[in-house]
Design a protein that fits this description.
The chain is α/β, with parallel strands linked by helices. It is 13% helix and 18% strand. The structure holds 2-acetamido-2-deoxy-beta-D-glucopyranose (NAG) (10 copies). It comes from Rubroshorea leprosula.
């Protein structure tokens, strides 16, 4: 009995102390292994813990620490899940030797899962000792800022199933010639080396990968792979295992030529991404064999030919990206069989024919992008059945016919709609209540022919509206700014709008871009514009606005571009405009503004374009010297057709970026300054090559993307880029300075209608880019310099009404300019073109070679073009 009692006491004691230890100490056989706890603490010390990720790493039971996983029975640490985030949060930042990290991790002898992704090891080299963690099955070192070569020792991690060494963020890792080590990872299922430079690996990359029997997920985008990695035909790949791959991302590499045919045999593929390479040729007909595909991306290559019919067999497909190629032919009807399809993106190809009616069967579709093709015919009504549709982009095609309410019947989820730049008529009734609530709507050039659509005002969350060229007329609703209170961009250019500019629009807190140009708006420019903080682009040009320009601008306003040209504005230059410290372009031309500018135009520190042409401004130009315009930003100075008088001030020459100088049709006197020959951007052929459409196009699209915040591929038409000086129609005297011939980049020089004396500079032939030269109506004398015959780009020449004498130089270029009026009023000249022949004149005249340029469009262009320099940088990042 006594013994029993003792035994019971002992039992109770054991139970009690056991429980006490369990409750308070957490220091029993249940808690973590001390040696491993120490290793973890050592690991922790290696890092600066920027986001307190490891703040729970204290106390005894390390198994309870955040991110630490222990085996339930043995209490050994088996997993470390310590994800940082490159982009969002601060993370663990290595402050010690990375070898220390590995050596502490090596103490965790049962560690199978290690995820350190998104932390930062401060550009350390990958320690080969990683290869000693033999028990690892999962290793994620994605975006940890390792650099240098990936050591072959990783091939010792023979149990690895998942290896993620991707680093698209830092892109500092590479694999050197020998990649054989990967083949020693027989259990590997997932391999991600995104952004790792594999260009130096031997060409047998896919042979090696083909030896991994379990590999099903392979991600090698941005790895600098090229054909030599793919097309190692001898010996051919062993497809036994490659055929198991389900996920294959080879995007953003430099593959060329046709899509590799071996893909045909990878019939397990569910995900295939070959976008952003230089692949060309057709999409293989047998694509339909890859019947397990859920996502297919061949976008941004140079694929041509038509989309194979067999694509309709990919009945599991959810996303299809073929945009940015040169695919032609029509969209196959079979596309209607892709019943699971959610995203269809075929934009920017050369597809023609109609949009297949069968598209209406794709009830899961969320996004249709067909823009920038040559599609014609009508948009099928059946689109109106796609009740899951969120995005419909068909802009920039040749679609015709009528868009009616039926097209939108069930599109209650639609948020982005762009049907612009087709030949469509939009015939929605004005009392229509659309089923959707759009955030983005462009009907550019879709003829509405009504008043400002009432239904639009019920689109409460719209941020972007483009109804340019839609023939809408009548006044804008007075309360538009209140009804569409989230509007950021409103484009209503080239319509028949009249009435005044609604104040509610000017008061809008969100509006950033307002384009009402080319309408018939009248009345004053509302003063409330001075309260707008967000508005950055304002285009009210070509209306009938009158009164003076508000003069209440403030330095907390975001204005970047302001075009008030071609209205009936009067009064003085609004001097407070100089408060707009972000203003890049100010266009006030073709109004009736008057007064002197000495005081008014000051502190335009970053103006790129100043156009005050066609007004009644007067006084001398010395303000250019004192106005503190940043002499390194102004590219366009256009003062033509005003009443400016006096001398051309020397300070003009310090405008180091000037590319257009237009002082024509004023009352300027004195001489042309020799320093004009030193405008740096005119001396050198400009950085932009006017003959190169690509340069031009790039420029324009970049600009328009920033200005208009969207992709305006339609502005593709090439327009020449001109660098010009126009001083015509003044009272300038003296001779043409020899120095002007140094302007090798100049395209246009117009000095006509002055009183210039002396000879044409002998070396004028050096101005190799000159396309147009007008020296007419002066008092120039002497012979036409022979060097003029080397002006091979000259297509417009006028030397009439001077006192020139002698023969017209015989050169191919000048002979093509056969119009005799070029030389009229110079009775002493002789040549084949003229009634007066020179004695040994022989060359027959050739057909004229005149270039037509679209002047209006061209002029408009300028004011966008020259804004560029500032757009790319700073400001817009902040505002938009
Ligand atoms: C248990 O905790 C005590 C301190 O309370 C400590 O000295 C001892 O080392 C711990 N034992 C184990 C096995 O962790
Ligand atoms: C990162 O490494 C550089 C040079 O290796 C060193 O100067 C710097 O102090 C390190 N940063 C931190 C936070 O340890
Ligand atoms: C590795 O971690 C990142 C997050 O940092 C994650 O996005 C990625 O999917 C992980 N890789 C694998 C293969 O699990
Ligand atoms: C680890 O790999 C290296 C080189 O890849 C090899 O030389 C070494 O023998 C391997 N070590 C073990 C323990 O397998
Ligand atoms: C391809 O690999 C598998 C598995 O290793 C093997 O059984 C087969 O013989 C190989 N085929 C060829 C042609 O090498
Ligand atoms: C695809 O597989 C077939 C047999 O299944 C074979 O004849 C053909 O050579 C393979 N194609 C490629 C490119 O490996
Ligand atoms: C122009 O700016 C300077 C400082 O940048 C300032 O001192 C000057 O008063 C300003 N002039 C005018 C007219 O605002
Ligand atoms: C230019 O005009 C200003 C203001 O009218 C005047 O003060 C200045 O003397 C004039 N300069 C010249 C050189 O005529
Ligand atoms: C042009 O300037 C001269 C003086 O330089 C002056 O006599 C003449 O009236 C001015 N003409 C006009 C139209 O302003
Ligand atoms: C013109 O270009 C050359 C070389 O492209 C350069 O050395 C020179 O400085 C440039 N001149 C001017 C005035 O910008």
């Amino acid at each position: 009995m006594r013994e029993n009692f003792h035994a019971m006491l002992i039992l109770v004691a054991i139970l009690f102390f056991g429980a006490a230890e369990f409750c308070f100490g957490r220091n029993t056989s249940f808690s973590c292994i001390e040696g491993e706890r120490e290793a973890l603490l050592k690991f922790k010390l290696c890092f600066n813990d920027l986001s307190d990720m490891l703040s729970s790493w204290k106390g005894y039971d390390c198994c309870e620490w955040r991110g630490v996983g222990c085996d339930k029975n043995s209490r050994h640490v088996v997993s470390l899940q310590l994800r940082g985030s490159v982009f969002d949060q601060p993370q663990l930042y290595l402050i010690d030797d990375v070898e220390e990290v590995v050596s502490s991790l090596l103490k965790l002898r049962y560690l199978a899962h290690l995820d350190l992704s998104g932390n930062n090891v401060n550009s350390s080299l990958v320690p080969p000792s990683f290869g000693l963690m033999k028990q690892l099955r999962y290793l994620n070192l994605s975006s940890v800022n390792f650099k240098g070569r990936i050591p072959g020792e990783l091939g010792n991690l023979t149990r690895l199933r998942v290896l993620d060494l991707s680093d698209k963020y830092f892109e500092q890792l590479e694999v050197d010639d020998d990649i054989q080590w990967i083949s020693r990872l027989p259990s590997l299922q997932q391999l991600d080396m995104s952004g790792v430079n594999l260009s130096r690996t031997s060409s047998n990359l896919f042979q090696v990968l083909g030896m991994l029997p379990s590999l099903s997920w392979l991600s090698l985008p941005s790895c600098s792979l090229n054909n030599s990695h793919l097309l190692s035909h001898s010996p051919p790949f062993n497809f036994t295992f490659l055929g198991n791959i389900k996920y294959l991302d080879l995007s953003q590499n430099s593959f060329q030529g046709p899509i590799p045919l071996f893909l045909q045999n990878m019939t397990s593929l569910k995900f295939l991404d070959l976008s952003n390479s230089h692949l060309s040729g057709n999409i293989f007909d047998s694509i339909g064999q890859l019947s397990k595909l859920k996502s297919l991306d061949f976008s941004d290559n140079q694929l041509s030919g038509s989309i194979p019919d067999s694509i309709g067999q990919l009945y599991k497909l959810k996303t299809l990206y073929l945009f940015g190629n040169q695919l032609s032919g029509s969209i196959p009807d079979s596309i209607g069989q892709l019943s699971k399809l959610e995203t269809l993106s075929l934009s920017t190809n050369q597809l023609s024919g109609g949009i297949p009616n069968s598209i209406g069967q794709l009830s899961k579709l969320k996004s249709i992008e067909l823009s920038n093709n040559q599609l014609n015919g009508m948009i099928p009504d059946s689109i109106g059945k796609l009740s899951n549709l969120e995005i419909l982009y068909v802009q920039y095609n040749s679609l015709g016919g009528v868009i009616s309410e039926a097209h939108f019947a069930n599109l209650s989820k639609l948020i982005q709609l762009d049907i612009g730049l087709n030949n469509l008529s939009c015939e929605m009734k004005s009392d229509w209540r659309p089923p959707f609530n759009l955030s983005y709507i462009s009907m550019y050039s879709c003829k509405l022919g009504t008043r400002f659509p009432e239904w639009l005002q019920f689109q409460k969350t719209t941020t972007m509206v483009d109804l340019s060229f839609t023939d809408i007329s009548g006044p804008l609703p007075e309360n538009i700014g209140h009804m569409m209170s989230e509007l950021q961009e409103l484009y209503l250019a080239n319509n028949l709008l009249n009435g005044s500019i609604p104040k509610s629009l000017c008061n809008s807190k969100s509006l950033q871009i307002l384009d009402l140009s080319n309408n018939m708006l009248s009345g004053n420019i509302p003063k409330s514009l001075c309260n707008s903080k967000a508005l950055a682009v304002l285009d009210l040009s070509s209306n009938m606005l009158s009164g003076s320009i508000p003069n209440c601008w403030r330095n907390d306003q975001a204005f970047y571009f302001m075009d008030l040209s071609s209205n009936n504005l009067s009064g003085l230059f609004p001097s407070t405009i100089r408060q707009l410290s972000f203003l890049r372009a100010l266009q006030l031309s073709n109004n009736s503004l008057h007064g002197e500018l000495h005081v008014a135009v000051r502190n335009f520190t970053s103006l790129t374009v100043l156009d005050l042409g066609e007004n009644k401004f007067s006084g001398n130009l010395t303000w250019i010297g004192v106005c503190e315009i940043d002499h390194h930003s102004l590219k366009v100075l256009r003062l033509r057709k005003n009443l400016f008088s006096g001398y051309i001030p020397l300070e003009l020459c310090s405008l180091s970026q000037l590319q257009i100088l237009d002082l024509a049709d004023n009352n300027l006197t004195g001489k042309i300054l020799p320093c004009f020959g030193k405008f740096p951007t005119m001396v050198n052929a400009t950085h932009l090559n006017p003959d190169n459409d690509d340069d031009y196009y790039l420029f324009w699209t970049q600009l328009m993307q920033v200005v208009k915040g969207r992709n305006l591929e339609y502005w593709k038409k090439p327009l020449g880029l001109q660098i010009s000086i126009d001083l015509s129609g003044n009272n300038l005297v003296g001779s043409i300075p020899e120095e002007l011939v140094l302007l090798k980049g100049l395209h246009n020089l117009n000095l006509s209608w002055n009183h210039l004396l002396g000879e044409i500079p002998k070396n004028i032939g050096q101005m190799e880019n000159l396309e147009s030269l007008d020296l007419s109506q002066n008092e120039l004398s002497g012979m036409i310099p022979n060097s003029m015959s080397s002006l091979t780009k000259l297509s417009h020449l006028n030397l009439s009404y001077n006192y020139l004498s002698g023969p017209i130089p015989t050169s191919t270029q000048l002979q093509t300019l056969e119009d005799p009026t070029i030389y009229a009023g110079n009775p002493q000249l002789c040549g084949a073109q003229l009634p007066k022949k020179c004695s040994n004149d022989s060359l027959p005249p050739k057909t004229p070679n005149s270039k037509d340029s679209n002047k209006d469009a061209f002029e408009k262009m300028w004011f966008y073009i020259f804004l560029m320099s500032g757009f790319a940088t700073g400001f817009w990042g902040g505002v938009l």
